[in-house]
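input
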Amino acid sequence: MKIALVSSIFIPSLGYLEEGLARVLSGLGHTVTVFTSLHYPVNYKSEKNPLKPEEIIRLPNSKESIRIIRLRTLIRVRSNIISLNLVRSIKTFKPDLILLVGVSDFFPIPLLTGRIANEFRIMAFIGQNYSMSHWVRTNPLHKKIVSFLINFGIKGFLFRKSVRHVSKIIFYTSDSEEIIKKFLGSSLTGLLNAKKIRLPLGFNSDDFFFSADNRIRARIELGIPEDKVVLITATRIDGSKRICEIINSLFLVRKINVAYLLIGFIDNPYKSEIEKLIDDNNLKEDIFCLPFLKNELLNKYFSAADYGIWFHPGASIQQGMGTGLPVFLPRHVPQSELIREGTNGNILNEDSTNTISSVISTYRFSEEVRKKIETNNRREFSYQSLLTRII
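output
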């Protein structure tokens, strides 16, 4: 099948949903072309090499590849981008299916407002998890006005167009459906109910899996004994990820006898804040800080760890779970819906320190149990499993 994947941003090294979908679909034998912009995310702080207008990505250990077409920009307002010739480029490709990753920014407007919406089968992946009130509380007046116009004007318009013109809407965060229904009347809500599919966020099982050899190698490399319980957080670390709160829960409220792998450091003020917290509390022997890593190395450290812990949503949560890693998550994190309490993880309440301490005190590593969790997670929410259900 020829599949056009449409996303306003597509940076393979970031490992976001759009990249995972493209790679897995190509690996399943589909011909995938990505249509995107020439831009990085607005909050991307790492070195920005110029993006090529067109490139081919080869999949590891495979003959399959992904073609990426990056279109010139017509309009850009922060993360909202309209590119030139999107419709013409897709018509030239002649796909059997168009996949839209996100419909709340400007990028898919040409596909949802023109005749092309009736010429091709379109499916949309939607994961809205923002709070409208957050903008009202935290931004100056001019940004509030712009946000209001975008959120309640253009986004509402796009949501309604999506419900009318796409064949299936796949919600991949828990509150997406309720957010979108606020923009719909009763007739469109009924149409949405007929088209919706609810799927969790996934992971690429070719990249993330448990490896006993990786576990041994990583622990030797870091000098961590096999009987030491290791927790891990992997994410692109900034102030929103609440890393200082995690460190506080693990080591400062009541010191829990664990090692902590913290992966995803980039140069920003929050990095300095974390480093000062570690220095001031003599935690250098307990906390191992590593930069943002590619999937192969990330998989190694997930295998080395015994539990994952996150206080903020992130694609790395389900990637870690793909290795059979049990996780600690607060209820508000969307991936908490993947947890089977006491089996593949634990939900954290306000007293997170006591919950973590109680679980860790009785934890004993078992490769058999880890493999069982990996198998169950792979069957339930790997991209390979999810996509074969809908395409």
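quick obs: The two ends are 10 Å apart (CA to CA).
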